[in-house]
Amino acid sequence: MLAAAALLRAALRRGARLHTGEAVGAVTGRAGRITGVRTAAGDVLPADAVVNAAGTWGGDVGRRLGAPVEVLPRRGFVLVTEPLPPMVRHKVYSADYVAGVASSAAGLETSCVVEGTRGGTILIGASRERVGFDTTMNTAVVTRLAAQACRLFPFLRGVHLIRAYRGFRPYCPDHLPVVGPDPRAPGVVHACGHEGAGIGLAPATGALVTAHLLGRPWRGADPAAHTGLLPDRFLTPGGAPP
User: What is the CATH number of domain 74-170?
Assistant: First the structure.
């Protein structure tokens, strides 16, 4: 959360304008090119390009822009303990955590990951399930995650939980983000679908989007590696989503 807030402050210092709580639709110019967005209040914000960086809501925003991408919500829970002296100094997870991240199953999956924080609390995860945007607090999932963490670190049996929270990862069926221009809607660039790795992949995603908008070659890894992230991978030969 602190990293996200810092990035937002940096953008505002450089001239970005922030509109919160706005639903947007496409403004279309000549030859079907997107020339901006229209808010639910009717305000038109012109732009040379529109970047769909809506995270878990990237699929919905893509549809409004005439460029749907298969980004789905994947709910997860995290438990937070009371502050403790330093006890868990590294991120520790069970082997099935890797399998859970790579799984495409829609049902509930849990695997153990435990991480200490600078403030002394310990974070416990992780669960994954595709239940739409259902925000129900499922105590059975909380109980399962706590039991798994106690098996990995028995001292946690005597530690209090102070809260649990849940959120939605932006999940793509092939487990790759969607980054790049959309051929169906000129002027739209996607930057979403990173699942649980959005913060870590944000700098590289920003570099890719910037390179496209400025018409420059990407100076990172092999440019051909980026082709697997482009939104046209979801299209059939006829140009429509499968």
Answer: 3.30.9.10
pLDDT tens figures, 154-197:
999 999 999 999 999 999 999 999 999 999 999 999 999 999 88
In this structure, CATH architecture of domain 19-71+175-234: 3-Layer(bba) Sandwich (3.50)
The secondary structure of 109-127, three-state, reads EEEEEEEECCCCCEEEEEE
Distance of CA 168 to the CA centre of its chain: 8
DSSP 183-226: TTSTTEEEEE--GGGHHHHHHHHHHHHHHHHHT----SS-GGGG
Convert the pLDDT of each residue in 26-74 to its tens digit.
Answer: 999 888 899 999 998 889 999 999 999 999 999 999 999 999 999 999 9
Q: What pTM does this model have?
A: 0.86
- Residue 152: in which H helix or E strand, if any? helix 139-152
Is the alpha carbon torsion for 103, 171, 91, 79 positive or negative? negative
Output the six-digit token pair for 101: 């991240």
